[in-house]
Design brief:
The complex is a heterodimer of chains A (429) and B (281). With 429 residues, chain A is an alpha/beta fold. Chain A has ten helices and 20 strands. In chain A, the strands form five sheets. Chain A has a six-stranded mixed β-sheet with strand order 5-6-7-3-8-9, with helices on both faces. Chain B is built from twelve helices and one strand. The chains are: A alpha/beta (429), B mainly alpha (281). Strand 4 of chain A pairs antiparallel with strand 1 of chain B, so a sheet runs across the interface.
Chain lengths: 429, 281
């Protein structure tokens, strides 16, 4: 039994998945039968081996931590580090394979906003349904109904089926319900990616209120500034294990310096890419300096080249490959796609199967000094997103020689353009 | 350990690997009764949304089926109907059958249909097939009115036995839930199940005395084996409750035992599979 000051206690938690069950499971009886037949025949031929270990991967292993009541703990890690699995285990969606944990009080999870929203139901109906799914009682929902509606800013459409909502309205309503849950432990994953900047600010504010009202919050985000703002302490996960637990600023530094590749180049092995991405497969992304060398550190006064290699196993129509540029605090700088220009758009609307490189140059004097993150996205607009990795690569920019660098001060902001100033003397004194 | 330090609402939830067979936690289920209510309510609300005729479908479906059945079996094939007007004879069986069929159709795909909930939020999973069976009850209640109207038209008197409909309806619901538990859990892993269900229902319908009277099946051992089909007891019971005649005695007993067996095994099977739902669905 845990100390009553603790809200969450986790001891040696591990979660093992069958590799098959995540990707190519025996989905139908026919697959099962053929797989069984293959296994039996290989055993008969003497190659029989109890194939237990190689078919499994540990998404979490030997995770230990505790959270005090009223504390907000950040969880940081790359995609696939085990963050989502950890939250799933903690919110009891899935059982751990080993280990033990205790949670004190009701656990509310915001693993994805809008869970259980039904498109045919009205906003009002969905508030009640979603509230019940998230563990609220009817009375609680009724008592907070007006507050939820006001927060979501969809008053006018509250009796309209949510399938007629814009995606922004939908998400705002969904977040509003979730934000008005009052569980003792709140598990939050990436909800801040919703809505416009104003609404995001409002959400962050709400999360801050929750954290400061004495409830325990587990907060997973790629947005480092949100982690820093909302949590005092964080744990860094990598390959299913806890690498570090430290005050959030230290954990963020550790993560940024170690968790990401520092080589200026990133390769994707075949098994790192979900099967669901097919026919698209990313191969590599790299940063090149002005001499064409792969580099982790480039100068702002030189052109910076970004190359993305990928393979299409089938023809794809409407495919666009691009990147998001973020500061390491998670603030977006800009987004660009390879067929942004009219001409390339026309020329590459249909891409036959094959291996490609999409190459782009960021002109000199664009970025300020600092570290940046590149996210990659491959999608057909409005149809399908094949692949996305928000933290594909990080690189540093050195601004020496850039505008204003004759003063030894650091300048805020992610860009450092050369602007056309002129100074005019309007007359003598 | 000083339990007194805790806030009254704070209960300890334990996370650990679950192994083996588990029973049903009725207390937990009770604490989720509002969710059962809302999921049932959602299923009902959504079913006839954007349908011009709306809830009228729950009346139209049995009426149309009765009309077709009467035409084919009553008029063309001249199947016996225990001396009753064929439409009433068919309708009295089609009503519980529709309840069973709809419950089974909805519950067998319910887990897969709600996979977005299963992979995101914790609650006792059994709530999902359970609420889809409950939702089917509403259609049944509405269509029951149809039956009484048609009985009035044919001037068939009612006796106090009519109240046996209530326990018989419960038996139908439990039968559908029992099969639904098995099929929904299997469907999570093997989507073959949802392909099979329409055939299963079709076969099941002909294995139930709906279009023909039970007297077609010879009495004795064969009748007993036949009664292992839970719907045999239900349909036989319905006809007796509405029209009198010989009470369904052994038939109903065997059918009830079959339901009990299916339900208990279904619950255990469901609970055993439950822990992997979120991982494989």
């Amino acid at each position: 039994m845990m100390d009553s000051e603790l809200s969450i206690l986790v001891r040696g938690i591990g979660k093992r998945y069958k590799i098959g069950s995540a990707q190519q499971r025996a989905d139908t009886l026919r697959d099962l039968i053929t797989a069984q037949a293959a296994r039996i025949s290989s055993r008969l031929r003497g190659k029989g081996r109890r194939s237990s270990e190689p078919d499994h991967i540990w998404a979490l292993r030997d995770v230990n931590f505790e959270v005090k009541r009223g504390q907000a703990l950040g969880i940081i890690g790359r995609n696939g580090a085990g963050k989502s699995t950890l939250l799933k285990v903690l919110s009891r969606v899935t059982d751990p394979t080993e280990g033990y944990g205790e949670l004190r009080g009701r656990v509310g999870s915001l693993l994805e906003v809008g869970t259980g929203f039904h498109p045919e139901l009205t906003g009002r109906e969905n508030i009640f349904l979603n509230g019940a799914i998230l563990g609220m009682h009817k009375k609680e929902i009724a008592a907070r109904f007006d507050e939820i509606v006001a927060f979501s800013e969809v008053e006018k459409f509250i009796d309209t089926p949510v399938k007629r909502y814009s995606s922004g309205m939908y998400l705002r309503l969904a977040f509003a319900v979730a934000a008005h849950l009052e569980p003792e432990i709140l598990v939050v994953d990436e909800v801040l990616a919703v809505g416009d900047a104003d609404f995001q600010r409002k959400c962050l504010g709400k999360m801050g209120d929750v954290a400061s009202s004495g409830r325990t919050v587990l907060f997973v985000s790629h947005n480092m500034s949100a982690i820093l703002r909302l949590t005092q302490e964080s744990i860094v996960l990598d390959k299913g294990r806890v690498l570090l637990r430290a005050p959030s600023n230290e954990a963020v530094d550790f993560y940024l310096n170690r968790g990401l590749s520092k080589m200026g180049e990133r390769f994707w092995e075949e098994d790192e890419v979900p099967v669901s991405c097919a026919p698209f497969r990313p191969l590599a992304i790299r940063i090149l300096d002005k001499t064409g060398q792969v580099s982790d550190s480039v100068r702002s006064v030189d052109p910076i080249q970004i190359e993305i290699d990928y393979e299409l196993s089938e023809d794809i129509t409407g495919l666009r490959i691009g990147f998001y540029l973020f500061t390491t605090r998670g603030e977006p700088v800009f987004t660009s796609f390879d067929i942004d220009s009219e001409q390339l758009f026309r020329e590459y609307t249909a891409r036959p199967a094959g291996v490609y490189t999409s190459r782009c140059t960021i002109p000199p004097d664009t970025l300020n000094e600092g570290r940046f993150l590149l996210g990659i996205n491959a999608s057909s607009y409005g149809i399908r997103r094949y692949f996305q990795d928000d933290q594909a690569l990080s690189f540093s920019v050195d601004a020496s020689g850039g505008p204003g660098t004759h003063w030894p001060e650091s300048r805020p902001g992610p860009v450092r353009p050369v602007l056309d100033w002129n100074i005019e003397r309007k007359g003598g004194v | 350990m000083a339990e007194a330090d805790l806030t009254p609402t704070a209960q300890i939830v334990t996370l650990k690997p679950t192994k083996g067979w588990l029973g049903i936690d009725l207390k937990e289920l009770w604490s989720y009764r509002e969710l059962i209510y809302f999921l049932t309510w959602r299923d009902i609300k959504v079913r006839y949304k954007q349908a011009v005729l709306g809830v009228a479908w729950s009346v139209l479906q049995p009426v149309l089926t009765t009309a077709i059945t009467t035409l084919v079996f009553g008029v063309l094939l001249k199947v016996k109907s225990d001396g009753l007007p064929y439409p009433v004879f068919a309708l009295s069986a089609l009503l519980p059958w529709h309840l069973f069929q709809l419950s089974l159709q909805k519950s067998s795909v319910s887990l897969v249909g709600n996979s977005n909930l299963i992979t995101k939020v914790y609650f006792p999973r059994v709530i999902i097939p359970f609420s889809s069976v409950l939702a089917a009850l509403v259609d049944f209640a509405i269509s029951l009115v149809m039956l009484f109207i048609s009985m009035a038209i044919y001037r068939i008197p009612l006796s106090w036995n009519v109240f046996w409909i209530l326990p018989l309806t419960l038996l139908t619901v439990l039968a559908a839930l029992a099969v639904g538990l098995w099929l929904s859990a299997l469907n999570v892993q093997y989507r073959d199940v949802q392909q099979m269900v329409p055939f299963l229902i079709q076969i099941w319908m002909y294995a139930t005395p709906i279009v023909y009277p039970i007297t077609t099946i010879p009495e004795g051992t064969l009748r007993y084996i036949y009664s292992l089909n839970p719907m045999v007891g239900v349909v036989q019971g319905f006809r007796w409750a509405l029209f009198g005649g010989s009470p369904p005695d052994m038939t109903l007993l065997i059918s009830s035992l079959a339901v009990l067996l299916l339900l208990v095994s279904g619950l255990f099977f469901f609970r055993r599979m439950e822990k992997t739902f979120a991982d494989v669905v």
